Amino acid sequence: MLYLVRMDVHLPHDIPAPIAEEIKAREKAYSQDLQRQGKWQQLHRVVGEYANYSVFDVDSHDELHTLLSGLPLFPYMTMQVTPLARHPSSIR
Amino acid sequence: MLYLVRMDVHLPHDIPAPIAEEIKAREKAYSQDLQRQGKWQQLHRVVGEYANYSVFDVDSHDELHTLLSGLPLFPYMTMQVTPLARHPSSIR
Amino acid sequence: MLYLVRMDVHLPHDIPAPIAEEIKAREKAYSQDLQRQGKWQQLHRVVGEYANYSVFDVDSHDELHTLLSGLPLFPYMTMQVTPLARHPSSIR
Amino acid sequence: MLYLVRMDVHLPHDIPAPIAEEIKAREKAYSQDLQRQGKWQQLHRVVGEYANYSVFDVDSHDELHTLLSGLPLFPYMTMQVTPLARHPSSIR
Amino acid sequence: MLYLVRMDVHLPHDIPAPIAEEIKAREKAYSQDLQRQGKWQQLHRVVGEYANYSVFDVDSHDELHTLLSGLPLFPYMTMQVTPLARHPSSIR
Amino acid sequence: MLYLVRMDVHLPHDIPAPIAEEIKAREKAYSQDLQRQGKWQQLHRVVGEYANYSVFDVDSHDELHTLLSGLPLFPYMTMQVTPLARHPSSIR
Amino acid sequence: MLYLVRMDVHLPHDIPAPIAEEIKAREKAYSQDLQRQGKWQQLHRVVGEYANYSVFDVDSHDELHTLLSGLPLFPYMTMQVTPLARHPSSIR
Amino acid sequence: MLYLVRMDVHLPHDIPAPIAEEIKAREKAYSQDLQRQGKWQQLHRVVGEYANYSVFDVDSHDELHTLLSGLPLFPYMTMQVTPLARHPSSIR
Amino acid sequence: MLYLVRMDVHLPHDIPAPIAEEIKAREKAYSQDLQRQGKWQQLHRVVGEYANYSVFDVDSHDELHTLLSGLPLFPYMTMQVTPLARHPSSIR
Amino acid sequence: MLYLVRMDVHLPHDIPAPIAEEIKAREKAYSQDLQRQGKWQQLHRVVGEYANYSVFDVDSHDELHTLLSGLPLFPYMTMQVTPLARHPSSIR
């Protein structure tokens, strides 16, 4: 089942740079692991913003929330989740 | 180059049903032709809404606008276009 | 899987009363059938508005969209769909 | 009488972790006690957000405000309260 | 129990004047009857708008929705309902 | 002349508790004094929020602004002020 | 007492031109009469919009609402009314 | 003096096609005349929308409003006008 | 040329009182100087808010931006600037 | 390919002045370098705001994001990016 997720990152300016870098490094590894599993199907940068649009393919709402709330940057993000259904004109 | 496009359809209630059906049939053919060409890469229904999220892969803003404004339903749609860049954590 | 859905009805004022009544009667039957099946678990009126908050329990996004888009009042509604996950403090 | 309540939690990032954990533990106990009393009838996580949708069944506005403002996380929450009435199509 | 209600009236411009006047006359009678019963405690015009702020004192959400949805102008109104609780600094 | 005022309080989390309590105590005394004078006619808690809806009866905009800006909590509040006129259907 | 009023005009496109012209002519006369009386102190066009910002100087909310609701274009306008108080830095 | 103007066109669906075409032809001629005069310096289509962003270079607010309100499509447009000043980092 | 400007002040709570007072004193002097020059024609307090509506009469966008950005409170303000044109019904 | 970009700067008040000045100096140099290369075609101050409207001419979304995210002020900015296409009435 597919979900479109928009994530906006708001890192506080007073986080020490090494800590911020460490969080981002863990975020990248976490994200790439989910991409390799096929659960995080797409990951695109929104031009000009510290934000992304992603597509997830998971089995349930609970699985998606577990994945998203486990993101190292989760405490610093706002998210919008949109469930996607099959479109009758899609050729896939 | 990738663009995320959200399209919301607002067909007036007083359009005669046969005309509405004819427009939708042309829309479907037009959409599937672009999908087969690889320009309209993804097409998903937003659950509960007469709306879709799509991803286009085209060479320029002008090409995208030409494709979108040629949609048979274009006069009845509102659109939001978001340019997408490569994300540094994407494995693709 | 649970979804919270808010539905707002906007019936055009120039729909003849008998037609509006017939649509509403079909809507009621359709809704009560889904309630009896256990798919439309809750249905509440928003006080002072021609709107409701509902909870659906279905197997997939596709099933939910099929149910919602089949509502006789669907062409006259705007909807907001929110996927709900298990809350760690819930005792259920 | 039923109320739909959406709660969004905004814990400041500079709260020491042990204090945050202690507040959350008290929140959980408080919430589960109200659930067992039948006053907090439903509690669902909004997917991807530090937020919940809840349904309360209490006797009066005053009782609801007393319950909500007593939440250990109340100073860090924004809330939207919607009174719910019986829907004429509900089979309950 | 008290509720603050804001009502905005949007009468379509193509309603024949005699019909509009008849609806407004019934609205006035309906409103004054509820005021005399003590259920519609306050009724104020918002300056410069075809809108009002009202305070209702009723026993339940269901009673309020029944009163509001029975307004002759109800099909032409949008409403916002806010439940009000006792304020600890109020001297009443 | 009547004004509807909505006040939302946003006390910073790092204000020491004794100072916050002292401000709130002064706020309460200030508010009750104006209520006894008949200028602050109504004061209601918005359910679930650190906010109130109030009705003031004063002689001029200047008098209202003087009263409001003198509130001990004024630096921590956002306010919306709506002037109210007599409604032609009011029986008062 | 001063009020800032923003008025936006939304004339339906299907009003016959002679009727629209007649309404506008009455609006102009009505407006200029109030300007000459000193009650409508300022009247400015918002650049690029069928809208104006005005300042009224009247004795009460009721007087202002009577003036505004008497405008020939009132049924086709949306209005925002902001009460203005003396500013402590004003030299007037 | 420069102004950024965003124009959104909302042509009613029931305007006969020949009349719409005639209005658009006049709009194009009007626009190109102002471009040749150097007053309408830039004109860009917003991708996916029946809208444009334009830059005007005129001597006064009054001149701009006269130009904009003279557009054949003006009755069917909403506009946002933003005055632009010289930027200290601009090399022009 | 006239501009309507709304200014909202957001002084951080942790600015030491003497520094805040000094900024406000400079703001007042700066403002009154511009009022005496006839450039800051009107200055009104928005009732209940730490905000004002002002009218400026200057020769160009650049002059206005220079005046506004020179305000001692400018770093703590949000502003909305609306260019005003002559209204055809104005008697001035 | 052209993009309209609006940038709003939100420098935290507690950044030491020398550091803020150093960031701004680097921002200016960075911006002027891109202007000289023809990539940052226009740069205008929004009157009354710490914001600008800019037009970029680059080859791809990726190039634009690289340029924007390299701005020394990027961590303190919010941005809105709008892709611009050729307008059929433009004479250029």
Key terms:
homodecamer; 92 residues; alpha+beta; Alpha-Beta Plaits; 4-stranded antiparallel beta sheet; 2 helices; 32% helix; elongated
Element-level helix/strand string of chain A: EHEEHE
Percentage of residues in helical conformation of chain A: 25-40%
- Cross-sheet strand order for the largest sheet of chain A: 2-3-1-4
Question: Assembly state here?
Answer: homodecamer
State the shape of chain A.
Answer: elongated
Strand residues, percent of chain A: 25-35%
What is the strand tally of chain A? 4
- Shape-level CATH architecture of chain A: 2-Layer Sandwich
Looking at this structure, what is the CATH superfamily of chain A?
A: Dimeric alpha+beta barrel
The major β-sheet of chain A equals: 4 strands, antiparallel
CATH topology of chain A: Alpha-Beta Plaits
Number of domains of chain A: 1
Unreliably modeled segments of chain A: none
Average predicted confidence as pLDDT of chain A: 97
Q: What is the rounded Rg of chain A? A: 14 Å
Q: For this structure, what is the CATH class of chain A?
A: Alpha Beta
Helix/sheet category of chain A? alpha+beta
* Number of separate helices of chain A: 2
Q: Determine the most extensive contact between two protein chains.
A: A-B, 27 and 27 residues
Give the termini separation of chain A. Answer: 14 Å
EC number (chains A, B, C, D, E, F, G, H, I, J): 5.3.3.4
Catalytic activity (chains A, B, C, D, E, F, G, H, I, J): (S)-muconolactone = (4,5-dihydro-5-oxofuran-2-yl)-acetate
Keywords (chains A, B, C, D, E, F, G, H, I, J): Aromatic hydrocarbons catabolism, Isomerase
Domain Muconolactone isomerase (chains A, B, C, D, E, F, G, H, I, J): 1-89
